[in-house]
Amino acid sequence: MEIFGVSMPAMLSQLLLGLVNGSFYAILSLGLAVIFGLLNVINFAHGALFMLGALLTWMGMSYLGVNYWVMLVAAPLVVGLFGVVIERLLLRWIYKLDHLYGLLLTLGLTLLIEGVFRSIYGVSGLGYDTPELLEGATNLGFMILPNYRAWVVVASLAVCVATWYVIEKTKLGAYLRAGTENPRLVEAFGVNVPVMITLTYAFGAALAAFAGVLAAPVYQVTPLMGQNLIIVVFAVVVIGGMGSIMGSILTGLGLGVVEGFTKVFYPEASSTVVFVIMAIVLLIRPAGLFGKEK
Amino acid sequence: MKHAKFTALALLLGSAGLLAGAAHAQDKVKIGYISDLSSLYADLEGKGGATAIQMAIDDFGGKVLGKPIELLSADHQNKADIAASKAREWIDTQNLTMIFSGTNSGVALALAKVAEEKKRVMINNGAGSSALTNEACTPYTVHYAYDTVALSKGAAGAIVDGGGKSWFFLTADYAFGHAMEADASAVVKAKGGTVASAVRHPLNASDFSSFLLQAQNSKAQVLALANAGGDTINTIKAAKEFGIDKTMKIAPLLVFYSDIHSLGLKNTAGMQFVTSWYWDMDTASRKFADAYMKKTQRRPTEIQAADYSATMNYLKAVQAAGTTDADKVMETWRGMKMDDFFAKGQIRADGSYIHDMYLVQVKEPKESKGTWDYYKIVKKLSGDDVFTAKAESKCALWK
Amino acid sequence: MNSKKFAPIGYGLLLLGLIAAPLLGAYPVFVMKLLCFALFASAFNLLLGYTGLLSFGHAAFLGGAAYVTGHAVKVWGATPELGLLAGLLTGALLGLVMGWFTIRRQGIYATMITLALAQMLFFAALQAKFTGGEDGLQGVPRGKLFGLIDLSSDMAMYYVCLAVVALAFLVIVRTIHSPFGQVLKGIKENEPRATSLGYDTNRFKLLAFVISAAIAGLAGSLKTLVLGFATLSDVHWSASGHVVLMTLVGGLGTLSGPLVGSAVVVLLENKIGELGTLLAQWTTIDWFNTLGESVTIVTGLIFVVCVLAFRRGIMGELIAWIERRRAG
Predict the structure, then answer these.
(1) Which run of H or E residues covers position B33?
(2) ipTM (interface predicted TM)
(3) Strand B338-339 and strand B194-201: pairing?
(4) For the whole model, what pTM was predicted?
């Protein structure tokens, strides 16, 4: 069966692959949206934190013989801790300033982190094998899908939904949301707002690292792996609505699928289609598809 | 006072400029080595290339025409602008004698232009593009180890003969990939095969899955990889993951020892391709490989061996010519008959070093005697048969 | 105290220094590269420091003009001054288009639009045949200025480059000190107030965009002639990030800031390797030899330090310090 001259299997397989990519976009833009929504900081360092998650996974395997499943929990914890340090040491000085400075500070942080690891490991990829449990592939008929990629989609969706639930539906999430709107009032109720903010940033960092662990067997683990991804993730957050959790998740997944679709017809444009969409959205609905104007 | 600050600025700029230009021409023979030292091609040549060149300098005696020989090296990071600027700076401020342009054809082409403008000999051992000795040929370029034409006529020819008639190309989107795809397609079509389609991927891509799916959907028999180094390794890994190797014959067109070492025999057994040299070929080669292994704990790739050989022969040519002047050295060198562990042959008017190539096949794991024992030689290919023939040549200097 | 009187003296001394530099042994190509980036940063600062618009897509102007000039000179055989003109016009045109889209939104959203549009230009540059994609546009000849002066000599090219940069910088200075420039400052400080005073702020912002983009394009064209190539690095978003860094380090909203900032950044990137080797020789600590590989780290560190402590940049802090000294 053919659509627009392309066979069904070709279309389906690219869309499915696109969904896998979309899962990464979803988790990363989720972390970014959480940090922007609750801290008002544009965290350019998100790509570097993602890379740290992947790199730590590789290091865990190569230096300590620690397996993937342990790193799936350990890497986000370590990076989350690192996030605490960043927030306490650097970020808290710039909350009162223009958004620009948060962007620049985290950009500088990115260069620092990437530069350090680049000088140690170079730029070419460090190989990471698929964990044994998830090896092998399933024949879906229209394509053979490696089991690991199916896992990526499942794990990402689970984490995204859990995060959304916590922030939108629980008391803790309510405190977080209130804390950014009116910190003084919330503090008056006895909630420690600065601690909440630190933990929020740490959580965002941990989310990025989680995506990194998932990415290690799929993409090449290199110190620069976050670079190209971060720009796309920014665009996703802008399209979804800076501050809307659900918006980021849906847009991330949707963009992955759109990219997959583009790859069928005009592969070279797949990396630019997100920017075209972003420009259009910014002109028609600047607050984003799901966002509220701040 | 504000103006004092500006004076300081002017002085700062001035002295910085002096720092930049301070190096005056010392009386040394300086060899400049510019290659990919940290990215996807770093294992093919990289720092090992500099080691090999230094080994040759030391074995030659460290001096030529009474002047000490110095090796300068730089990482071009696969960017032509970085390479060209570096080469120019070395030539303008350090009196560089000759250039070794390394991996990455786009960079090599840029350096060939600089070498032509500034009249310096340029030897290339890492870039494949046949354009270096065709459209872009200059009187100073020596394309020493291999090029995409030789690889195509050798490997593509053998695969078509073996039954692979319909081809799909996965091409790195820059000079090398384009040249490899063009030259290989020509050979395939000349032998009666067909090229179903091609897809281009960015250099140093991180994920090949969607390109591979396109390849699979084309239903071609052969998946030809017009890429190299890290890209080839990742493509092969992904192809195995998605089960592409069960329906298509995977034919990487440019493969190096370091790639097989990274992938392992179980992923590459049976693959056939063309190489200019291989460390276990004969006694002389093994001797060089052992000396190299002592310094680096790795076996040399054909490029690193070629770097050693080319340096030796260049220095011999300088000795014979009695000068480092590029025109005279090239004239002398083209007349020299070379014979060492790397190869035996002569440099042609278009800059190609014509020597034998070898069609090799990767051993099965059970055939291999251990680490570093990967190839078996299938056929020896005569240089005259596989390099660009005079009738096909687009080089203005070779008429 | 009129520090205004000393500024021209300062610039005059700088100019003299630059005129003398190659005669004193500086490598002309390197200083020319510095000049091009100084102009690029100054053009960028016109938009950010004086109009308050952060563009994260200025590389589009630098690179777009670079490619056009390269093509004009290499393929169409244009003489260098026509090539430069083509680059200037390309920058202006791109600025018009990008500006038109950008001014429709404020703050971070406007910045995102500039990024998106610049990325689209990057894609176009990657795909277009004439740019040479990853290989770049190589072998651009310098040609003869006005058909008379051969620019292939580094010295000749240097003085022409210096003249062009000085003139363009003068244009920026006049723009800022003109009534037009005052309105821009007003818009930066409080746009609603400017609107209520009757100014069509959108038109002013658009014009600022066009001027900034045109001069940035000129810088790119000049760079192409000097170095002989135009590559994807010129349109990549990291080039946009670079110019933000240069302006931030030097001092937003000061005239001399971008000059100092670009000098610091370019010197850092190119000379840190040599500095490392020098330090290694003096202290015999081998680790310094690897300093050349840590350009990114040092750049990142500077970014962080500047945002936290030196928000006004080198010149900004300096000028503020002088004012404080005078007042107290």
Answers:
(1) strand B29-35
(2) 0.84
(3) unpaired
(4) 0.88
